[in-house]
Amino acid sequence: MILKRYINNEILKNCIAILVGLILIFISTRFIKYIQLAVEGSISSSAVFSLMGLQIPAVAGFLIPLSFFIAILLTFGRLYSENEMAVIQSSGVSEVQLTRYVMPVAVVLAIFSAGLSFWVTPWSSQYTQLLMNEEKAEAKLGAFSPGRFHENSGKTGVVFVESKEDDGYIKGVFSVSGVKEDDNTLQIQIAQKGYLHRDSEKQQSKIIESSNDSQTNKEIKGDFLVLSEGTNYTFDKSSQEWQKTQYEEYFMRIDPVSLPTLELKTKSMTTGQLFQELSPATWAELHWRLSAPLSIPILCLLAIPLARTAPRKGKFARLFPAIMLYLVYAVLMMNGRRLIEIEKIPVELGYWWIHGAFIAIAYFLLTPKRIKASRRKASV
Q1: Which one, of 227, 220, 230, 204, lies nearest residue 256 by Cα?
Q2: What's the rounded Cα separation, in Å, for the pair 128 and 254?
Q3: 186 within a domain of the structure (yes/no)
């Protein structure tokens, strides 16, 4: 029991460290992508970290098998390189027994990975689609990023916002419209501040014209951009006359933007929805979700014999060929998913032939004759 706890603790510590490092590497690439979208104004800055957090379950579910595989290789490689494995084997503990010691950890990780694959990842993928949908709609409503010129919705001019506060208020608004040759009116608008208001209630706007200081009350209902303390300059190209209008509040009507219909991808569908449709694409997704939990115990069977090394070679000696074998396993599953979708592989067969092939490799490596041959080779 002491040996079992010792080995499992080492494997878990290495697995967690490797998993956290790999997640940070994968998430950093997504972070750069989302930052670029925020700079372009396609999404808000507050949505960047939400989208990053939603990517973690999918990335973790994909990386847990690899992290566990490398953790076993490093742990057993160190035992071999520091001659601890020689002491363990001389006390009568075989590789098969060591596999039994590690297998409960593999089963626990497989159950955790199954929870991520079948429930958490589909939910996070679906919520990511919904959030991106809403952000695109907000961008169409004029939620411009500050410090850059943006083309207006009618493609007749540009809008510039100097700064944007955390509460959603914008400051230093400058817009020009009617710059095309066929436009009869050129309009320049300057406002000190403003905000985007989405409401179905009737609103009152007071417009003060500098020419006669008359007041006009106007009812506005729906989505609109509220500008405060500004001035409108209008130039009539036919009469060559300018008109200046000052206002306390100006309500700019915005055409209502409806969210586009959200069509769930297969990776965003719940497991129950996949079983209801049962098309080649849904079968491929089911086999893909099942692959991570199944691969963890298979990789455990592979990693222990693959970690055999001579003491002088160090704990990283067998790491590269083992990683190459894992890549073959992963590439076969990725390509198998595509082959199932195009019905080149029967949906009932799925990934079972891949898992079966690597179980056979693990059995071959764990056979007594193979173990003795590897020990003699490692002792040379």
Answers
A1: 220
A2: 26
A3: yes
**Do residues 284 and 322 share a domain?**
yes
36 with 169, same domain? Answer: no
The letter for the amino acid at 289 is R
* Phi–psi pair at 236, nearest 5 degrees: -85, 110
Residue found under tokens 């003795």: 372
Question: Mean pLDDT, 10 residues at a time, over the chain (380 residues)?
Answer: 84 93 89 80 76 88 92 88 79 81 92 91 86 69 61 69 72 78 78 70 37 41 71 82 82 58 69 82 88 92 84 72 90 88 85 91 75 49
Domain span holding position 189:
149-253
Q: What is the pLDDT of residue 220?
A: 41
Tell me which residue of 62, 75, 175 sits closest to 125, measured CA to CA.
62
CA dist 28 and 30 (Å) reads 5
Q: Which helix (H) or strand (E) holds 198?
A: strand 185-208
Question: Can you give the pTM of this predicted structure?
Answer: 0.70
Q: What is the dihedral of CA 266, 268, 270, 274, to 10 degrees?
A: 0
Examine the domain organization and report whether 280 and 318 are in the same domain. yes
DSSP 269-337: S-HHHHHHH--HHHHHHHHHHHHHHHHHHHHHHHHHHHT---GGG-TTTTHHHHHHHHHHHHHHHHHHH
